[in-house]
Amino acid sequence: MGDKIYTLAILLAILFLAKQIISYIKEARFKRQHGCKPEAKIPQWERFIGYDMYKIQVEASKSKTLLETAKWRYDTYGLTWSIVVAGRGFINTIETENIKTVLSVNFKEYGLGGRLVAFGPLLGRGIFTTDGAQWEHSRSLVRPNFTRSQVADLDTFETHIQKLIAKVPTDGSTVDLQKLFFQLTLDSATQFLFGESVSSLTSTEGSVQEQFGKMFDLAQNRLLRRTRLAKLVWLYKDKDFDIACKVVHEFVDNIINKALEKADPIDAEKSIDGTGEPERYIFLTEMLKATRDPIQLRDELLNILLAGRDTTASLLSHTFHVLARRPDIWNKLKAEIDELNGEKPDYDTLRDLKYLKYLLNECNSPPLPLLPRGGGPNGVSPVFVPKGTLVAYSTYVMHRRKDIYGADAEEFRPERWAPEEGLRPGWAYLPFNGGPRICVGQQFALTEAGYTIVRMVQQFAGMENRDPTEWVENLALTLSSGHGVKVAMVPR
Ligand code: HEM
């Protein structure tokens, strides 16, 4: 018996070794054929576990300097380099050809990594969490619901913005606009998706709506930690996260069940509140035409809520953070918006506001983590990407490349987007991602952000900065300001 086990163990070892050798030979042949050269490597004690880098990353996260650390590495080691952190190999790049390859040319060869494992308990399987055929199916269900007419419901935005304006003090006291923007985008996104807003700007403490908002935030804030744990996430017990997911699901299921009861599959146009009145566009009602599976409905709605809510709030917060410190930009923007004579803008008017567009372009770089170049001493040869390696790119650093954006790349200068300056960054400007997985909510976000800015500028004569500190990062799934946006608004 002992002999048999021994022989079996030896056989298995030989088999394992043979597999390794074959894959090594295949890799070597592939590299030779394609002229791959090794990429730059960040010096590490060992590149097996990468504990030194893990510690450095944790420290940078604590001191809120992750973005600057990444920038320093790109400045020091070039546009493409590799690193091992907590047992995982990463190739980091801000080489546009590489990013285009991953997101578009060789799109099918790359996946989302462990997103489904980390996000699954909250979001299930939807457009934001799946790959391959399942993602294609989700995308085909979701995408048609983002056409121009459906995202431009400015009357609905107006209702929410008025609630926000009502919460801004006019007696010169300080307000944190960032907090209000996160409430605003939660309210407008839930209205658009569910047909019922959670009205966090006005909801009372202890209401189911308020509870939903709180629990969604809590669950979402744990997703980054879960992503970092990767395959080991099942070892990590997080009771608060489990409870939050349950509360969020119950809230959404309740809305979906009501919609399923009311909406006749043949005539899903009818309102879900049963009045039969023609209604505003509701994403859920449209989805009911394509599927009546309650789990799929819940998953897609939550996937979009997660993808669309913080991102837009972050964009608004970045913009007002800058505006509070740059009266020159505020005045230029105000001059453009004053030409509307206080009228509410419609969709086309919004699109025609050129300076607003440049401003949003300049603000829009909240990085979301995710190769033909990068190898050899000059970084121009192809780089081999071993299976399982994570390819990451930093839009924060890429959007500050001096060779693309000019010597003043680090300055905040909306004018760089004026056509006469000739800036055409192509794949070097990716706030909304690129390729088949490009953001479906881009128009929704730009319309909401643009409309909010116009209405705020029409309402207030100016703003005073009430935060003497420098901007610091608050890097979760999206990027916002670590100290909020503390200002006083000056009434007109
Ligand atoms: C300023 C605001 C926004 C920014 C900067 C932004 C950016 C992005 C980026 C970078 C991605 C790719 C993420 C990845 O796969 O890692 C993405 C995907 C996505 N976004 Fe947005 N987004 C914004 C607003 C919105 C809004 C308002 C919605 C919906 C209402 C939305 C819905 C989605 C969806 C559903 C995806 C997944 C698409 C797919 O994988 O096929 N986004 N967005």
From TrEMBL:
It comes from the Eukaryota. InterPro entries: Cyt_P450 (IPR001128), Cyt_P450_CS (IPR017972), Cyt_P450_E_CYP52_ascomycetes (IPR002974), Cyt_P450_E_CYP52_fungi (IPR047146), Cyt_P450_E_grp-II (IPR002402), Cyt_P450_sf (IPR036396). Heme binds at residue 439. GO terms for molecular function: heme binding; iron ion binding; oxidoreductase activity, acting on paired donors, with incorporation or reduction of molecular oxygen, reduced flavin or flavoprotein as one donor, and incorporation of one atom of oxygen. Pfam families: p450. Its cofactor is heme. Belongs to the cytochrome P450 family. PANTHER family: P450, PUTATIVE (EUROFUNG)-RELATED. This is Cytochrome P450 monooxygenase. The lineage of its organism: Eukaryota, Fungi, Dikarya, Ascomycota, Pezizomycotina. The gene is fsdH_1.
